[in-house]
């Protein structure tokens, strides 16, 4: 395997966790670390062990359990920090100690209160000590992009002479701009040399340029990129891993270098990190946002229907994201609308389609996003005009729950002409009620999905149930609300059945071949 590839150093669990508002416990960090290993990152920076006993323990747990990537712990140049980092990472098959100190004038003078010589002294003793403990030592020159390039090169040369194997040039405060940064990076690299060293880059997003600067450094010769899932991190965040990886892959001809990332894990990893950190992925986020593969504009939708490559530079399946979607809204055109109607099983004449399209646009002005259920209702009620008058209504129900959660239900329904009741047992009260309803109406639709949620937060909250049922290849959705969740569930089921009957009738499908009871 070629040695010329871009190593992905993931720092979601260290710099990512420095995001104000994120605090992961050891088990959550471990779960993310396993996922990062499946993704194929080369290095996991699992934490800053000297920060707290909890972080030291999390790094130890990850080092002990997660195989594949190197496990790094961050450390100041202080001996006690390095020792603590070593005690945590030593449990890994591939331990790395990552030592840093600032090299910019402003940091040295005002923060560290050290002279250049003192900083060089810190680098010498820290890197030498770290290297006496592990063979894999990374040195970072914090605020490198704002450092005097001559001094920066001197600091890096010293770190390499003392045994550092990776030299990392961070744009700590997100100040760099790509063109300037690639020149800066290339010059420092040239001054120090590349012999046996991996050059690394670490960018922050204060000006929204973290990924651009990272890619500029790769172009200049960086072969390790430090980044986080979803771009989380201190202040405006770090360079986003998924964006860097997909830029390198999609524009391979430009960069000429690969990563070892298994990109189909990008989307699941992003969702796991979002769930555990509570940092929701914005819908328009590149690569992993909900809208990254959605198209709303008619002209785009038409293009995508002709050939996805007209508006998609990546395939959603390559990043593990759901299939691309055409979202119908007021910007959609006839092509996408007509396609959706066909996929719902309707074959309209040109005239019917034109009429439906006008009604659809009106509906969009009122509703924003129009669901498939809305379109079905529009076709059945307004275009085909043969909607059934039959609809079932709940009159009454009784529930009892036995040992082990078994339930029995009696349900009373009317169809406007007759009233019928029946009883059934089931796996819980809702299942029993649905079975009783099936006995009354004489068909057994498959329950495709069932969701219940509270509409407000008080204990007397209204519960809303949403069910999707399927019968004879027709999908129908129903909703029901009540302060009693069982009643909400029953109402949703009946609502779905009424919708099913309407659609079937509009399509000329007989749902009740024997006879319709009730
Ligand atoms: C750019 C980055 O992201 S760097 C990583 C930043 N991450 C973190 O800071 C998270 C973890 N940090 C912590 O938990 C704490 O800051 C600790 C445990 C490391 C230190 O806590 P404290 O001892 O209370 O010090 P405090 O954080 O207030 O100040 C930092 C001290 O470290 C010194 N320092 C800062 N960077 C370095 C360094 N790389 N090497 C050596 N000393 C350093 C500062 O000069 C200051 O020294 P002083 O206490 O003698 O004035
Ligand atoms: C420790 C270093 C790599 C860092 O996080 C930064 O400079 O932003």
UniProtKB/TrEMBL annotation:
Its cofactor is Mn(2+). One of its GO terms (biological process) is L-leucine biosynthetic process. It catalyses: 3-methyl-2-oxobutanoate + acetyl-CoA + H2O = (2S)-2-isopropylmalate + CoA + H(+). PROSITE patterns: AIPM_HOMOCIT_SYNTH_1 (PS00815), AIPM_HOMOCIT_SYNTH_2 (PS00816), PYR_CT (PS50991). One of its GO terms (cellular component) is cytoplasm. Mn(2+) binds at residues 15, 202, 204, 238. Residues 6-267 form the Pyruvate carboxyltransferase domain. Residues 393-518 are annotated as: Regulatory domain. Pathway: Amino-acid biosynthesis; L-leucine biosynthesis; L-leucine from 3-methyl-2-oxobutanoate: step 1/4. Its EC number is 2.3.3.13. The keyword Manganese applies. Pfam families: HCS_D2 (PF22617), HMGL-like (PF00682), LeuA_dimer (PF08502). Keywords: Acyltransferase, Amino-acid biosynthesis, Branched-chain amino acid biosynthesis, Cytoplasm, Leucine biosynthesis, Manganese, Metal-binding, Transferase. Coiled coil: none annotated. One of its GO terms (molecular function) is 2-isopropylmalate synthase activity. NCBIfam families: leuA_bact, PRK00915.1-3. Homodimer. Catalyzes the condensation of the acetyl group of acetyl-CoA with 3-methyl-2-oxobutanoate (2-ketoisovalerate) to form 3-carboxy-3-hydroxy-4-methylpentanoate (2-isopropylmalate). Belongs to the alpha-IPM synthase/homocitrate synthase family. LeuA type 1 subfamily. This is 2-isopropylmalate synthase. It comes from Acetomicrobium mobile (strain ATCC BAA-54 / DSM 13181 / JCM 12221 / NGA) (Anaerobaculum mobile).
């Amino acid at each position: 395997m070629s040695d010329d590839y871009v190593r992905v150093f993931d720092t979601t669990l260290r710099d990512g966790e420095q995001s104000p508002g994120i605090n992961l416990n050891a088990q959550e960090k471990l779960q993310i670390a396993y996922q990062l290993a499946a993704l194929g990152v080369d290095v996991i920076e699992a934490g800053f062990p000297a920060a707290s006993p909890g972080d030291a323990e999390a790094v130890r747990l990850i080092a002990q359990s997660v195989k594949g990537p190197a496990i790094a712990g961050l450390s100041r140049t202080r001996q006690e920090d390095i020792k603590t980092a070593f005690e945590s990472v030593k449990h890994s098959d591939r331990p790395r100690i990552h030592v840093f100190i600032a090299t910019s004038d402003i940091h040295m003078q005002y923060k560290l209160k050290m002279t250049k010589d003192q900083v060089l002294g810190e680098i010498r003793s820290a890197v030498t000590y770290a290297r006496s403990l592990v063979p894999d030592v990374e040195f970072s020159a914090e605020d490198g992009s704002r450092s005097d390039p001559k001094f920066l090169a001197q600091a890096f040369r010293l770190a390499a002479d003392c045994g550092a194997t990776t030299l990392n040039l961070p744009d700590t405060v997100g100040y760099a701009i790509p063109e300037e940064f690639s020149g800066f990076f290339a010059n420092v690299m040239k001054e120090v040399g590349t012999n046996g060293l991996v050059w690394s880059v670490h960018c922050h997003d204060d000006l929204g340029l973290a990924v651009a600067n990272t890619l500029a450094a790769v172009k200049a010769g960086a072969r390790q990129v430090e980044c986080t899932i979803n771009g989380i991190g201190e202040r405006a965040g770090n360079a986003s891993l998924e964006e860097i990886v997909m830029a390198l892959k999609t524009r391979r001809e430009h960069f000429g270098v690969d990563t070892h990332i298994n990109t189909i894990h990008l989307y699941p990893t992003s969702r796991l990190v979002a769930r555990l950190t509570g940092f929701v992925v914005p819908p328009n986020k590149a690569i992993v946002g909900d809208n990254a593969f959605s198209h709303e504009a008619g002209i785009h939708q038409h293009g995508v229907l002709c050939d996805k490559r007209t508006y998609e530079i990546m395939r959603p399946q390559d990043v593990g994201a759901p299939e691309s979607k055409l979202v119908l809204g007021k910007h959609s055109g006839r092509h996408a609308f007509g396609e959706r109607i066909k996929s719902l099983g309707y074959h309209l004449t040109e005239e019917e389609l034109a009429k439906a399209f006008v009604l659809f646009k009106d509906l969009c002005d009122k509703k924003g996003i129009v669901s498939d259920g809305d379109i079905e209702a529009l076709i059945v009620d307004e275009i085909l005009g043969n909607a059934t008058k039959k609809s079932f209504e709940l009159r009454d129900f009784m529930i009892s729950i036995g040992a082990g959660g078994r339930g029995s239900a009696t349900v009373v329904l009317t169809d406007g002409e007759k009233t019928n009741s029946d009883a059934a047992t089931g796996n819980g009260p809702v299942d029993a009620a649905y079975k009783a309803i099936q006995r009354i109406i004489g068909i057994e639709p498959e329950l495709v999905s069932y969701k219940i949620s509270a509409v407000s937060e008080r204990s007397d909250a209204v519960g809303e149930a949403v069910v999707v049922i399927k019968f004879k290849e027709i999908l129908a959705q129903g909703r029901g609300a009540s302060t009693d969740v069982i009643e909400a569930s029953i109402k949703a089921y009946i609502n779905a059945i009424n919708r099913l009957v309407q659609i079937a009738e509009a399509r000329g499908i007989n749902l009740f071949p024997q006879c319709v009871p009730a």
